[in-house]
Amino acid sequence: MSDEQNTVSPSAKAEGIPAATVIIFRNGPDGQPPEILMTVRSRNMTFAGGMAVFPGGRVDPADFALGKALSGDIEPEEAAHQIAVVRETLEETGLAIGLAGDIDAAKARTARDMLMQTEALAPVLDEFNWSLDLAQLTPFARWFPLNEKIPRVYDTRFYLANLGTGAVDIEVDQTENTRLFWVSAKGALDMAETGEIKLIFPTRRNLERLALFSSYEETRAHAQATPVKTIIPQIDTSGDKPMLRIMEDAGYPITAELLESVARG
Predict the structure, then answer these.
(1) In the prediction, which pLDDT does 30 show?
(2) 221 SS3 class
(3) % residues pLDDT > 90 (the chain)
(4) What is this structure's pTM?
(5) How far apart, in whole angstroms, are the C-alpha atoms of residue 215 and residue 211?
(6) Which residue, of 28, 147, 221, 233, has the greatest Cβ tally within 10 A?
C-alpha cells in the first residue's frame, strides 16, 4: 500500500462521527458456545441499511455532557462512548446494561419508554435512582473506515458486556431496527454464508475474532490483553485484485477481503 493510502490528515480524522456499539453475551444452551445479540437495521437507514450489526449508535451531546459530569478514572470522552452504549442498548433492545440499582424487567420497560421521550439518559437515571456501572463494559475495538466510500463515516468504539444466564426480555425498537436475535459468532458467520443475513466489513471481522473463543471470560481476557488500536481499513492494489485490509496486530484472525465482495455501510 502506498504512503498516501496510509496517511490520515487531521481534518479527515475530525470528520468521523463518534459512535459506540456493544457485543452483548449470554450463556449458550447446554454448554454450547456463548451467544451474542445482533440486530438487523431497517433498510431505510442511511448507514448499514438491511445489515446485521451489534446494538449501538452515535454518541449524542447529552452523552458527552454526562461523561464530563462523572467523577472517576474514565476519561470524559471515553465515558461518553460507554454512556452511549448504555443508552442505545436500552433504547434499541430494552436491556439495562452498564447500570446499577433496583432494576427489573418492568422498570427497564418503563425506563425505555421514558428514554424514547427524553432522548437522554441522565433524566432516566434520576427518575429510577439508578447509577452508571461502566465497569460492566470492556473495550474491545475501534473502527474508523474513513478510506471507504460510504455515506457516513463513523469512528466507532466497540465494547463487550455479559448477561450470564440470558434470562432477559428483548424487544426491537421498530424504528432503526427490524429484528433482534441471539446467535453464536460462528452461527452468525454461517448465516451470512447462506445469505440469511448480510454483514458489513467490520462486523464480519469482529465475528471472526469472537468465534476464536469458547466463553465470554476468554473473550474478555483476550480484549484486556490486546491494546485497542484505531483500525482504518486500507485498499491494497499490489496483487491481482484489490483487497481491503486491516492491520495485522489488532487481534483479528482474518485481515483482508476481496474489495469486490466487501459489503459497505
Answers:
(1) 84
(2) helix
(3) 71
(4) 0.88
(5) 10
(6) 233
Residues 42/175, Cβ–Cβ less than 8 Å: yes
Query: How many helices (H) does the chain have, and how many strands (E)?
Result: 9, 13
Q: In this structure, are residues 255 and 242 in contact, taking their beta carbons and an 8 Å threshold?
A: no
Q: Which residues, 6 or more positions from 241, have their beta carbon under 8 angstroms from its beta carbon? A: 258, 259, 260
Considering only residues 200 and 140, tell me which one the structure prediction assigns the higher pLDDT.
Answer: 140
d(CA 208, CA 192): 12
In this predicted model, which residue has the larger pLDDT, 216 or 14? 216
**Angle between helix 121-128 and 61-69 (nearest 10):** 50
65 half-sphere exposure, CB direction, 13 A CA radius: 7
Closest CA to 167 of 40, 35, 54: 35
Q: In sequence order, which residues have a C-beta less than 8 Å from that of residue 60 and are 6 or more positions away? A: 84, 87, 119, 120
Find where cell 465515558 sits: 79
Per the listing, cell 437522554 goes with: 120
Q: Determine the angle formed by the axes of helices 105-118 and 76-93, rounding to 10 degrees.
A: 110
